[in-house]
Amino acid sequence: MKRANLDLLFSVSRQRSTRVLIVMGLFYILFMSFEVPFVFKNGLGSVSQEGLFSSGNGLLNPKAFALDSEENLEEKDAPVRPLDVPYKSRPERKLFSSLNFTAGIVNLSLESGILKAAKDALDLGGKVLRELELIGKNRSDRGLNGVNGSSSSNSEFCPHSMSVTGDEFSKKGRVMVLPCGLTLGSHITVVGIPRPAHAETDPKISLLKEGQYVMVSQFMMELQGLKTVEGEDPPRILHFNPRLKGDWSGKPVIEHNTCYRMQWGTSQRCEGWKSRADEETVDDLVKCEKWIRDDDNGSEESKATWWLKRLIGRTKKVAIDWPFPFVEGKLFVLTLSAGLEGYHVNVDGRHITSFPYRTGFTLEDATGLSLNGDIDVHSIFAASLPTSHPSFAPQRHLDLSDTWKAPPIPEGPVEMFIGILSAGNHFAERMAVRKSWMQHKLIKSSKVVVRFFVALHARKEVNIEVKREAEFFGDIVIVPYMDNYDLVVLKTVAICEYGVRTVSAKYIMKGDDDTFVRVDAIITEAKKVPDSRSLYIGNINYYHKPLRSGKWAVTYEEWPEEDYPPYANGPGYIISSDIANSILSDFEKHKLRLFKMEDVSVGMWVEKFNSSRPVEYVHSLKFCQFGCIEDYITAHYQSPRQMICLWNKLRQQGKPSCCNMR
Ligand SMILES: *[C@@H]1O[C@H](CO)[C@@H](O)[C@H](O)[C@H]1NC(C)=O
Ligand SMILES: *[C@@H]1O[C@H](CO)[C@@H](O)[C@H](O)[C@H]1NC(C)=O
Ligand SMILES: *[C@@H]1O[C@H](CO)[C@@H](O)[C@H](O)[C@H]1NC(C)=O
Ligand SMILES: *[C@@H]1O[C@H](CO)[C@@H](O)[C@H](O)[C@H]1NC(C)=O
Ligand SMILES: *[C@@H]1O[C@H](CO)[C@@H](O)[C@H](O)[C@H]1NC(C)=O
Ligand SMILES: *[C@@H]1O[C@H](CO)[C@@H](O)[C@H](O)[C@H]1NC(C)=O
């Protein structure tokens, strides 16, 4: 577990973890050499002290900041920027999708929002693309440094510490930007006052009937990955939510969670009981400290008697309980710090909770601190921050080794083509796919061909890097429009086009860059259907209805019908090439109806196809949508680290079992 957590801090790359281990060793020696005299000096007196002020986080001791050298170590042996890496250009490989998107949507009416969006995205995309192509042409004249301009932009300089007052914080939308994220030992101190409870009718944290309300006082402190994902809510790397009043349990609690790709994890609730002794600790601290609950007045000892006993000289270690750390209208000083294994929260000098690192995000990705809810912020201080940001430079994620290059497309027909939807800046995700299931022998031998489908990014530097990545690995197809959540469906058409025209595959599969695919299992699944039949395989939803309210509402203009057709969940499904071909020809004849939900669109197209030629619908829960199940065929929401872990398990144990760490 320790190893795993460490890896998380320093990215997935294997070679680095050796370095990390060495540094860990140094750290240990350093720590011991300080800690041992410390114990001696303080002698017995310090023993009972520990009960009072929980020993806290060793990392907060000034001596531990020697750890900052870790960053330096890494910087020293990593080249400043591997610009000289030989990106060989392979003109024979198609970088761009050859589907004529303009032709496909030119004659469709502009009434529906998606077509307007598509036109705009294509127009802008066209401009960006021409720019990109020019850069490609000029590169040969100017050598590899042709994109000099963009490369210097990653050497962002960041302050070692930052502070804002409450007013400044409110003016900036209650988000404090940490331009280079956090690093090991970084800490953020928030001085604030919880506001008194207010009447709340939105039954988010309490179960309510119509017309009822509840008095609620709660606030949310979040570390967000502001720059990691485009077109989605930023991932919440840490969500810290003290509920002073209004939790359904009727007690004050503190909830912790993470939200990756808009998917919440399981929450960690601290309800005033100390974590069980057998529970996993975080840097040797418990996940939840005890506080006085109004229903356990028996065990409480008043501070006066405690002091009395101490004066009399009782040697027995006495534990003292404190009340819930947040009180309406009372000032608190909260410090959040980044340890080796997780985040630690201290309030008014006492350790309250710890939350182990979960997602595939690194500390550097935590580029924003937001505070919302019933809280008045007085000031925020962040210190021991990293002063340079190695990230956003894809070089951190890309491993430019020939091993990971895609084999060329064979002359003859291919069994299966897998198109993976990916966003421009998902460098780490793509690399994890390359290093995991794309190493399957069926892919290495070109029986199965895999390509990433990436649209243009709003940031020019990202596009330049994607193009270079595409040229090096040969496994990216760039679709010429500006990326947009509602236009994912166009990528699916591009996948059909590539699968039918470029690869001549028998089956076409669509996946996401956080989908883990068992390549042999999907072939087996497809082979179960006789060769002559058309097929549609996946985790199929029957009788689903559009959501008509809320953030993800579908309007009646967008989808007039009451029901959706049967459709396979988007993270992994297979169609036969005849269906793909008909999708493509409908698109080119301007007859293809486009809907913003990509998976529903495919369900609709297959249903239409089925009306003229029967399609075999194969439903399997093993195309897991919500995560991973044992014996999965595909697993979804897998972070880069989990991808590698799943692949290792598959190879070493020969069976598909999940990796449940995040
Ligand atoms: C795409 O189609 C449009 C309209 O049919 C046409 O004007 C354009 O030249 C086509 N583009 C390519 C690259 O074939
Ligand atoms: C668009 O539709 C009109 C009439 O429906 C047709 O004459 C024209 O050829 C179509 N344009 C394209 C590019 O197919
Ligand atoms: C490419 O080079 C030409 C002249 O060689 C120049 O006019 C043009 O601006 C350059 N384009 C870019 C994107 O650098
Ligand atoms: C390229 O980078 C170097 C050093 O970063 C800088 O001095 C030079 O001006 C840059 N050249 C261009 C054309 O941006
Ligand atoms: C706490 O005190 C209340 C009233 O003083 C009493 O009803 C309750 O039983 C006590 N709870 C415990 C666990 O002793
Ligand atoms: C496919 O078509 C057949 C024959 O028309 C029909 O019986 C079946 O219900 C259709 N399947 C779906 C899922 O629409």
UniProtKB/TrEMBL annotation:
GO molecular function ontology, one term from the record: carbohydrate binding
Required cofactor(s): Mn(2+)
Main localisation: Golgi
Membrane topology note: Single-pass type II membrane protein
Cellular component terms per the entry's GO annotation: Golgi membrane
Subcellular locations according to the entry: Golgi apparatus membrane
InterPro entries registered for this protein in UniProt: ConA-like_dom_sf, Galectin_CRD, Glyco_trans_31
TM stretches of this protein: 20-40
Database matches in CDD domains: GLECT
Domain Galectin residues, every copy: 174-383
Keywords (A to Z) from UniProt: Glycoprotein, Glycosyltransferase, Golgi apparatus, Manganese, Membrane, Signal-anchor, Transferase, Transmembrane, Transmembrane helix
Pathway the protein acts in: Protein modification; protein glycosylation
GO biological process, any: arabinogalactan protein metabolic process
Function in brief: Possesses hydroxyproline O-galactosyltransferase activity. Transfers galactose from UDP-galactose to hydroxyproline residues in the arabinogalactan proteins (AGPs). Is specific for AGPs containing non-contiguous peptidyl hydroxyproline residues. Utilizes UDP-galactose solely as sugar donor. The addition of galactose onto the peptidyl hydroxyproline residues in AGP core proteins represents the first committed step in arabinogalactan polysaccharide addition. AGP glycans play essential roles in both vegetative and reproductive plant growth.
Family classification: Belongs to the glycosyltransferase 31 family.
Classification via PANTHER family: BETA-1,3-N-ACETYLGLUCOSAMINYLTRANSFERASE, HYDROXYPROLINE O-GALACTOSYLTRANSFERASE GALT6
Listed name of the protein: Hydroxyproline O-galactosyltransferase GALT6
